[in-house]
Amino acid sequence: MQTRLSKAFSETPAGQEADAILRSCVHCGFCTATCPTYQILGDELDGPRGRIYLIKQVLEGQAATDKVQTHLDRCLNCRACETTCPSGVRYGHLLDIGRAVVERQVGRPVRERLLRRALGLLLAHRRRFAALLALGRLLRPVLPSTLKLKIPAVQVPGHWPEPRHARRMLVLAGCVQPAATPLTNAAAARVLDRLGISLLAIREAGCCGALSQHLGAETEAGDMARRNIDAWWPHIEAGAEAIVTTASGCGVMVKDYAHLLRHDPAYADKAARVSAMSRDLVEVLHGEDLSGLHAESRGAIAVHAPCTLQHGQALPGALEALLRRLGFTLTEVPDAHLCCGSAGTYSLLQPQLSRQLLERKLAALNSGRPAEIVTANIGCQMHLASRSTLPVRHWIELLDSAV
Questions:
Q1: Residues 6 or more apart from 363 whose CB is under 8 A from it?
Q2: What letter would DSSP give residue 308?
Q3: Percent helix, strand, coil in the chain (nearest 5)?
Q4: Contact, 56 vs 96, CB < 8 A?
Q5: How far apart are alpha carbons 392 and 211 in whole angstroms?
Q6: Cβ neighbours, 10 Å, residue 358
Q7: 133 vs 140: CA distance, rounded Å
């Protein structure tokens, strides 16, 4: 694709990156076939190809409008288009650049600004979210049904094994997960302990920064990345062999720290090392001897592989292969590559589209008549559970109960 970026952008690092991405696009349209919002809305501008054109026009000097912002807002950033693209277009990075530019030009109504800021201030901070969730659980009987469904059931995490192995890995605790689904990381620690690996949660590390990044708060996202790197660095130097993420959305972000901080002379090298060390829990177990684990299933399982695992981390089929290796019976899930509609804050900012995607996904997951649904990301887990008639849990819980 030919480009003529305006001088305001062409001489900036973001503009130069956007130019390279735009030039790699051959405008073939393969991406539209796997775009969830295009499938629902049928509008070229609500698919990757159309959004690429909108971003290109803005970077070439055409004024951004509310309409452009709306089409970019509707994107889930699921990156299914990247998996489909034969030219390797890095659409996710282009979208972040385009959204930031449009945000600066167009702005938002006061109500939208307040909502987005509130989400960043509450969801991305562990203690604040825990207090909010506790209040929500207390008031659950009197809340509207739409909010009531979003409040997860209380989990008992159980014990976390003391560090006792020579092999040690760090785990990202995250922001929402410690309060909403604390069982996930505790189960991961127990499973890895049985495999001869001690899992350490470093208290000083917090939100990965993904939520802020996708809300357009790039500076805040960078600060969160630096804080996590600082928290992990002494343990990395002491021999920790990996940084484990049990939420695939966080995994995408941590693996992208190298890109996020590439222009920061104080952190570029450290960020590159952290990104190289980042492993989704699925990747970690794929490399281990699992002969001591045995499947204990109450029936067939439907797997929802999150977009952030399939497309963001480029691990399609990895979770399904691991569970089959362990002896679990999996059902066929039609259109397994499509998003469930969670996508970070998307379900709160685009509730109607999110609901439609959720209904389609649950219909696909239920089509094989499974006994339960498992997934690999807290956002997907909570989103699916809000409407599912079947139990929805993180896949590591299956192994935690294996003997």
A1: none
A2: I
A3: 55, 5, 40
A4: no
A5: 23
A6: 22
A7: 10
Flag whether pLDDT at 24 surpasses 60.
Answer: yes
Q: What does the DSSP 8-state code read for residue 45?
A: G
Alpha carbon of 121 to those of 35, 118, 176, 203: distances in Å?
Answer: 30, 5, 12, 19
Q: With contact defined as beta carbons under 8 Å apart, do 259 and 267 qualify?
A: no
Q: Please give the Cα distance from 358 to 77 (Å, whole number).
A: 16
Cβ atoms 304, 375 nearer than 8 A: yes
Strands 301-304 and 278-280: unpaired
Give this prediction's pTM.
0.92
SS3 assignment, position 168: strand
Amino acid present at 162: E
Q: Could you identify the residue written with the tokens 């055409």?
A: 62
What secondary structure does DSSP assign to 326-340, as a single string? TT--B---TTTTS--
Alpha helix ranges (H) inside 60-198: 66-73, 80-84, 91-106, 110-123, 126-139, 145-148, 177-180, 183-194
Task: List all residues 6 or more positions away from 47 whose beta carbon is below 8 Å from its beta carbon.
Answer: 31, 32, 35, 37, 38
Amino acid (one-letter) located at 225: A
Q: What sign for the dihedral angle of Cα 252, 93, 27, 34?
A: positive
Q: Which domains does the chain have, with CATH numbers?
A: 7-106 (1.10.1060.10), 301-400 (3.40.50)
Q: Can you tell me the distance from the alpha carbon of 29 to that of 100, in angstroms, rounded to the nearest whole number?
A: 25
Q: What is the pLDDT of residues 218-236, one digit of tens each?
A: 899 999 999 999 999 999 9
Q: Which residue has the tokens 């890109």?
A: 259
Give the Cα-Cα-Cα angle 266, 314, 199 (nearest 5 degrees).
Answer: 65
* DSSP-derived 3-state class of residue 197: strand
Q: Can you read off the two tokens belonging to residue 179?
A: 């309060």
pLDDT digits (tens, 9 = 90+) for 344-386: 899 999 999 999 999 999 999 999 999 999 999 999 999 999 9
Reported residue count of the chain is 403
pLDDT band with cut points at 50, 70 and 90 for residue 401: confident
Separation between Cα atoms, residue 291 and residue 115, nearest integer Å: 49
Task: Write down the mean pLDDT value for the chain.
Answer: 93
- Of the candidates 249, 314, 280, 250, the one whose C-alpha atom is nearest the C-alpha of residue 80 is 314
